[in-house]
Amino acid sequence: MLSNLRRLDKKPIARALVIFAAISPLLGQLALVFLLSRNNVALASYARPLAVIFSFVSISFALWAASTIIRVLGSIELISDHLTEIKSSGRFGDRVEVTDKLCLSKLADEINSFTSRIEEKERDLKVQDKMITEREEQNAMLWLEIEHNLNLAKEDAETDPLTGLFNRKSMVAKLEEAMTDAQMTGKPLSVLMADLDHFKRVNDTYGHQVGDEVLKAFAKFLKNVIRGNDLAVRYGGEEFLIILPSTPVKNAIQVAKRINKQLPDFIAEELAHVGNLTCTVSVGVADYPACARNKDELIATADSALYEAKQAGRDLIIYSGDMGCHDTVSAKA
Predict the structure, then answer these.
(1) 238 among known catalytic residues
(2) Catalytic entry in 97, 122, 213, 238
(3) How far is CA 95 from CA 86, 99, 131, 327, in A?
(4) Could you state, in order of their start, the residue ranges of all structural domains in the chain?
(5) Check: CATH 3.40.50.300 for 168-329?
(6) Predicted confidence (pLDDT) per residue in 215-229, tens digit
(7) In the predicted model, is pLDDT for residue 43 greater than 90?
(8) Could you tell me the pLDDT band of residue 309, with boundaries at 50, 70 and 90?
């Protein structure tokens, strides 16, 4: 009882119980005085023993009552502290122990059972949360893989498998974008149509494998020559289209000259293992809006200029102006 009393915060109640136990003998003496005042001679001789017995009973009852109440209050405080600890720490694994065989022990068991169920639910929630997190990570990885595959599929659909340049199908959208930008900004737009001279002779002389190596080398050369916003396209066979946004025709002709002059040495260096291999290129030049009103006319005009370069002896650059006027530019100039 003393240990519970020291632990108990309800000290006024404890003090009241102790005081009640202390004054119980006084109550016995008062009872004795009361009996004597009644002049009951028959009971007077028993007054002192009865007073002692009554005092002892009263003290015993008071001590039992005080001990019981203190134990109850101590158990209540223990349960309250336990619930406060759960609230502050969030740990449902701790248990409260009430050893007194009172109704509070059953209450403590119910609280422990309740916290056990909460702890179990908390574990289940953690497991579910972990599963959800893992599934989200798996879904994220799956979406990344799908996005990567879509990009690869898009790249495969837009690029030529041999040279790695954009193919003719993707060129349409790219040229439309460049044409729209030129129309909105008023900036010039030029295109080059380049064709390897006597490419059939290369295939017939050295084989198609060497011919493919020449095409790949030409694509590599174009990537090195053009700017970042320019676009090189394998238009078909050994024919390549170069789109030059924001480029006036004068500058486009300079790009065509650089291609025409530097390509033979580049091919010879790249395919040094093939003896006596020489490659030249003819280029047709057209610009918007001087030569065409739309993308189809622009490509057709550049292709016509290329045809004229072929007919004029190859290894040339031809610029096709508007109204069917064509200016010939010497590749060796």
Answers:
(1) yes
(2) 238
(3) 10, 13, 29, 98
(4) 2-90, 168-329
(5) no
(6) 999 999 999 999 888
(7) no
(8) very high
